[in-house]
Structure prediction request, 384 residues.
Amino acid sequence: MDFDLPSELAMLKETVARFVNEELIPIEMEAMDGPDLKPEVRTHLERKAKELGLWLLDVPQEYGGQGLPLLGMAVVWEELARTIALPPRGPGIFGPDVRPLLFTLSPDQKEKYLFPVLSGKKKTAFAQTEPDAGADPGSMRTTAVRKGDHYVVNGAKRFISFAADADFLQLVVATDRAKGSRGGLSVLLVDMNTPGVSITRKQQKMMGDVTYELAFDDAKVPAANLVGEEGRGMALAQSWITAGRVYQACRGLGVARRCIDLGARYAKQRVTFGAPLSDRQAIQFMLADMMMDHEVGQNYVYRTAWKSDNGKLARHESFITKIFCTELGFRAADRCMQMHGGLGLTTDLPIHKMWKDSRSFMITEGAVEVMRSVLAREIFKMHG
Prediction:
């Protein structure tokens, strides 16, 4: 087994690390305006990204991108997570955020939806979560009933990011509630200006980002906007769900690395009772544990990404990766805050933001408790 990154990915990692160190960390405390990057900062960073060849990294080459595999994106995501200069949840600075689902569209759908997203003319949002169907999509109540050449959509969604700026939704609906997530869910492309589609509530999150609640009241959606076939909603979701879990795991890895750096530097500088904190065994053990956990987590992230890239089923690995690394990120930020004492509680350092963001990733896109339950069921199956 070869545990070294391929040479091209090692070079990419070095390039992104330098970009983070030279362009992002120096401006991280004043780069954001609320939940968004300041416009002038975004313009500057996107220009630098293009100059360095860091553009449309995960977009397939046939659509003008670089076609990086998941392992390549994991390398990029971990480096970016070392700074709070960027929103923790897109849009990034390396080109439009295009979920893999859009690459499965029909030729006509690509002309109307995919290509405008790639060119920056349209924005999209993904809408699945509901008040009674978060971790349990099989309980989804938003329905789409086929009537001739269109579907009639009724229901509600919540915690939907980027809905206010979206031109269209990638909407997961129940086309057969009796089948639940096993053949009963489908995906529709829904224009936001469709009569019957409305934003009913804006929610501010503790991480600084904003999500929205949506309502669908007899909204008519052309049948031609069905993605793939009816009942394949969960199967289509698999095209991005593993990548989403790896992304969140990489957030934890990046935070852990930054916290090791911050903690070690401060421990060498801060003197208490005549000796630097670095002489205290309590501090030494915190940093040693953070380093060990980072190494374990990184190896497992790379393994999960490699399996996915090679067409191997990596569902359970993605669960383990997300659980371990998101908890690692929060634990590392918490320990780093503790090391810094009162200074760690201020907003003068990036620690408070990493702490809040890391806490959120233990809930979003699959709570760690749900994933533990799934893994436990597999254990019981093996010992049946």
